[in-house]
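Limitations
The structure tokens in this dataset are predictions for the assembled complex, not deposited experimental models. Users should treat interface geometry with appropriate caution, especially where small molecules or nucleic acid strands are included. An illustrative entry is reproduced here so readers can see what is and is not provided.
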Amino acid sequence: MHLPKLFKTENFEILKEIIKNNSFSNLIIYNEKILTTRAMMLLNGNENDFYIETHLNRANPVARKIDAENEVLCEFLGVHTYISSSWYDHTNVSTWNYEQVQIYGKVEFMNDIQLYNHLNKLTNIYEAPQKCPMTLEKMGKEFVEKEMKGAIGLNIIPTEIKIKQKFSQNREEKNNVRIISHLEQSEDIMDKKVAKKMREL
Amino acid sequence: MHLPKLFKTENFEILKEIIKNNSFSNLIIYNEKILTTRAMMLLNGNENDFYIETHLNRANPVARKIDAENEVLCEFLGVHTYISSSWYDHTNVSTWNYEQVQIYGKVEFMNDIQLYNHLNKLTNIYEAPQKCPMTLEKMGKEFVEKEMKGAIGLNIIPTEIKIKQKFSQNREEKNNVRIISHLEQSEDIMDKKVAKKMREL
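Predicted assembly:
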């Protein structure tokens, strides 16, 4: 990630929000080859002491190649959209506004209790909005135990954290207002989300 | 990427569509450390002979660490959404439906003419929907030449291609219909897009 000072933040609330809204994100490892997998990643802990928890199917190449020795990368893309230079009052290049979190870390493998708690938490979070929320209890002990045998639970302990918010902070206010106005007039929900973020900054 | 046979496709039209709709995607390299950057990536060519073209700011750590020796990975995530197991007529786990393209490749550095053509193509594609589309001509030769000096153009020649469409193909029709129905009733545009893809399959 290219992280000029202007776009760098250490605001933990932003990190939390980006991870919460984009749990289905990218786990990247290197073991003779670059390997990646999409996984459901949750943040556990607070600003001073946190880690990422996730789980993979044991048949996943990343699960077979991941180890406790090598640093892995968890990557979360937040809201993002195209910014046309035709909106500026001067000549410049078009760009993309976006926010992103990168967490490099070392892997610790979960034991059965940790994996159960992780799956329980994940299920409760994602089932909460459903009409008839599924729970691990409803699935039954035998079924859950069988599923757990096919999964591998991972805690990723951060070694390096990067939070980027690239929202036209390098533009003067006049052009910022023009960009926000264009995004707010768009019918694309992502454009509106980026406009909201730009107003908040 | 975990790519069971059931979710694997070699349909070039799907690859093309996913890249076209998700040009702002992930370029991943390994050079002593995993490094990634978001970049605008375009497909150039046809099924039998194609490559990915992109450009980076020279100050980007990936631009400084990328070389012609090491394989890189271009990754494109298509439509994706949560599938609740509460929608099934039987006990099972919740999952995420999604489509993804991975292109491993070797890097060739663009010359000035190739870089100009790439930026021209990119600008024309992304400015086409604008009210007053910006063009490289409008920006002026001097400005464009200055911008080009700060950029590095890359052609990524594929060494390995993976296309995944995970859209509940492992469910029987009855449950597929239930999933599609739930997604179509959702107000989330992404849910509707996934439902459309599932109907097409």
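Some entries come with short summary sentences. For this one: Chain B has a mean pLDDT of 96.
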